[in-house]
Amino acid sequence: MFAITHKKIYLTIGAILMLLSWIVVFVYGLKPSIDFVGGSILEYRLEGARPMPVSITEALVNNGYESVSTRNAGETNMVIRMKEITPEAEEEVRGIVAGAAGSAVVLERFNTVGPVAGAALLRKVIIATVVSVVVIMLFVMLAFRKVSEPVPSSRYAYATIVALIHDISIPAGVFAILGYTMGLEVDILFVTALLAVLGYSINDTIVVFDRIRENLKNGMKRDENFEKLVGRSLKETLARSFNTSFTLIITLLVLFFVSNEAVRSFVLALLIGIVAGTYSSIFLASPLLVIFGGKKAKS
């Protein structure tokens, strides 16, 4: 199986992608939405020509509004983020935007989150993510507890965790770039997408690991070592992995092009995560098992 024969190349590619993602996140950071930091977000549809975002920002700042940022959305909309305001103040904001744009505007979205609620939500997200990873690791160790040769069950868990870190690092890196270049924010839907990706990736990885366990239980073929057995197991599950991922990716692509902007960012995170998860389950997790097996994997 090519994924095992050229495992060092694929592991290096995965490591480089993760490293680049971490660097991008460290340098640019993720742009948090009001879900986490509090504030108000407003989306307007402009009936006439759309002005430059900076002109809307300047008009609002000149009228006393704080922490204002404006960006285009789609063909006719504008999204404005600012310090928390009341529904009454939104009517004033709408009038300012209409005056700066020189045309009528229609409110399509208005969400407000207090800073305390945003901080509490962020803590819950961090706790949920950590608990999910720990539970996954324990589950894999328990599921493969009877597999001790040539790789102990703990190594299956380690390989799974490395794959999961890869799968959430790639979407984070892409969103950090998009946040820096296009103002794309990460919200609770982004976190939901990452948790969904974790679930998909662990399922895909365990399918391969389960086939490895089954083949170990049935015994190796003549002149077959653990490395070759892993390659055979991957080959037996490859069509299933690709077909499942391809079907899901096609569905998500359709959703991406027909959904509104709020849902589109969620779908984008899922798309990137599913592609990363498919790569990791085939080209990272199983090759890592062979690496962990050391000399035993070749004997």
TrEMBL record:
Question: Boundaries of each SSD domain copy?
Answer: 125-291
Show the PROSITE patterns listed in the entry: SSD (PS50156)
What stretches pass through the bilayer? 9-30, 125-144, 156-182, 188-212, 242-260, 266-292
Q: Which GO terms describe its molecular function?
A: protein-transporting ATPase activity
Give a single Pfam family match.
Answer: Sec_GG
Tell where it localizes: Cell membrane
Identify its membrane topology class.
Answer: Multi-pass membrane protein
Q: What is its main location?
A: membrane
So what does this one do? Part of the Sec protein translocase complex. Interacts with the SecYEG preprotein conducting channel. SecDF uses the proton motive force (PMF) to complete protein translocation after the ATP-dependent function of SecA.
Q: Which NCBIfam families match?
A: transloc_SecF
HAMAP family xrefs: SecF_B (MF_01464_B)
| Assigned protein family | Belongs to the SecD/SecF family. SecF subfamily.
Name assigned to this protein: Protein-export membrane protein SecF
Q: Which organism is it from?
A: Candidatus Zambryskibacteria bacterium CG10_big_fil_rev_8_21_14_0_10_42_12
User: Organism classification, top ranks?
Assistant: Bacteria, Candidatus Zambryskiibacteriota
- Gene name in the database record: secF
